[in-house]
Amino acid sequence: MKLNLLVIRTSNPALLKAQYEKLGFEFDYHQHGNGPFHYAAEQNGFVFEIYPLTKSMEKADNSVRLGFDIPDLENKMLALENSNWNILSKPTETKWGLVALIQDLDGRKVELKNKM
Q: Which of the two ends of the chain, N or C, has the fewest CB atoms closer than 10 A to its terminal CB?
């Protein structure tokens, strides 16, 4: 089994899109049928979408933890230092490889792992 779609929701899709672009995603702005306009990025068969909150949502769900393999993690972390990402832990060698933890504008924790 392989994950092929992840959708997150936010009160400010354009701002969150710009934040995730700093990780290397390239988004398109579109909609499906009568659904809401949203941002979508596709890489290697994986689709990552950023949607606006639904009318019944007051705030974004920040309990989901995301993880992405990043080439050249140490240089990526240097680039994120002066951005709107909250750096929770710098790259640390673990049994899973070199890993760092950052937090997006909605409070979601994002684990970045060095792609070998």
A: N
